[in-house]
Amino acid sequence: MGRITEDLIRRNAEHNDCVIFSLEELSLHQQEIERLEHIDKWCRDLKILYLQNNLIGKIENVSKLKRLEYLNLALNNIEKIENLEGCEGLTKLDLTVNFIGELSSIKTLQHNIHLKELFLMGNPCADFDGYRQFVVATLQQLKWLDGKEIERSERIQALQNFPVIEQQIGEQERAYCLRRAKDKEEAQRNLQEEEGNEAKGRSYPGFEGWSPFSVESKDHIQAPEGQEGECNQKKFKDSEDDLEFWNKPSLFTPESRLETLRHMEKQRKDQEKLSEKKKKVKPPRILITKDGKALNVNDPKLDFSLKDDEKRNQIILDLAVYRYMDTSLIDVDVQPTYVRVMVKGKPFQLVLPAEVKPDGSSAKRSQTTGHLVICMPKVDGVITGWRQTSKPGESTLDSSREHTNQRSKQIEKLEVDPSKHSFPDVANIVQEKKHRPRRVQSEPKITASEEDPDFEDNPEVPPLI
């Protein structure tokens, strides 16, 4: 059963940016509401209030709505007009198809001096003799009754015959109240019987005609075929009960409306239980075997492409993620031998042909297509078993890589050997100079003259240039 809550009002206040204290119009129709509450505290500025097609049994908690102009309470369970004196600005009241039998209760509307339109068609009181004349004479401020304009001559005639009409209406009201009391007692008795039958059915659910301690009942539980037969019998019985309920003649009363709603609610719950039983719990998806081997999984059923970029020495995965999917629904996990992408909780896992560096990997979304592009750099010098059965074209690529690796190793060994350290030998240097060309050896002749024992160095003689 529905209740008026703050969340319900906010959901129906989107036209006012979900602000409820300044609402001027509110529609709460077809919400299975049984009681009017909280509206006079939360929405005091209301001018129009729609509450038709609910299960409201009493008009209450609306007396503080001073600005209310139109109140629609059609198709409810109201039996008496009351508690509307505080709605000073009320101009239109719709009580179509309710259960108002006390026609004299309209006298409370005499305080609503601005009331111009009233709808009471479809109520038991509308079948009373003199109904229209009584309403026209009682509420002299009315201009329209049940969609028909009240003429001046009609009001004058109603006022003239009012004493007689009032007496007739009183007698019909008392007769209706007696019938209504009997209907309430019968409805209460039927409700108690149904509750007793339900309690008996709940004591041994699903074991009609079986003893809960017998061996046959245990065999019946253990056999799947027996369970299916029991389910079919239960469905057949439920369908029979449903047909019996809808074909059973009943009076149109507030109790019958409530009974119908309870029956429909019970059917809905039973249907939900059956659907839950039918749902098979899927076993968890196995992504990695017990041996530690990763499996290829594509639960989201997405298209993808895997490319080996030899120039940049990396592996590129292009996953065709839905274009308008929020990136927060995607989770990427890169491991050395496989990559896993969770798309809305569904795993996509792919085993990689070579070992990669998870720390150096990157994932980006394409702004045009929305695809997820994951770039994973490969680990150098690691050859997996997958490479041993490579194609002839790939063997040349591997040989070139081995050649570069050997060359890199030679470069790393280019260091000066301490055992081969040598110091310059003066004798060798001079010996090298003796083997120079003649034009270079022409100058040392002066140094030979300097070594002559008869040579004297006179400091006063300037040097030869």
UniProtKB/TrEMBL annotation:
Keywords: Cell projection, Cilium, Coiled coil, Cytoplasm, Leucine-rich repeat, Repeat. SUPFAM superfamilies: L domain-like. Residues 128-146 form the U2A'/phosphoprotein 32 family A C-terminal domain. Residues 386-465 are annotated as: Disordered. GO terms for biological process: epithelial cilium movement involved in determination of left/right asymmetry; flagellated sperm motility; outer dynein arm assembly; protein localization to cilium; reproductive system development. Residues 386-398 have a biased composition (Polar residues). GO terms for cellular component: cilium; cytoplasm; extracellular region. Transmembrane segments: none annotated. Residues 399-423 have a biased composition (Basic and acidic residues). Residues 449-459 have a biased composition (Acidic residues). The keyword Cytoplasm applies. Gene3D superfamilies: Ribonuclease Inhibitor (3.80.10.10). It holds the Pfam family LRR_9. Belongs to the tilB family. This is Leucine-rich repeat-containing protein 6. It comes from Zalophus californianus.
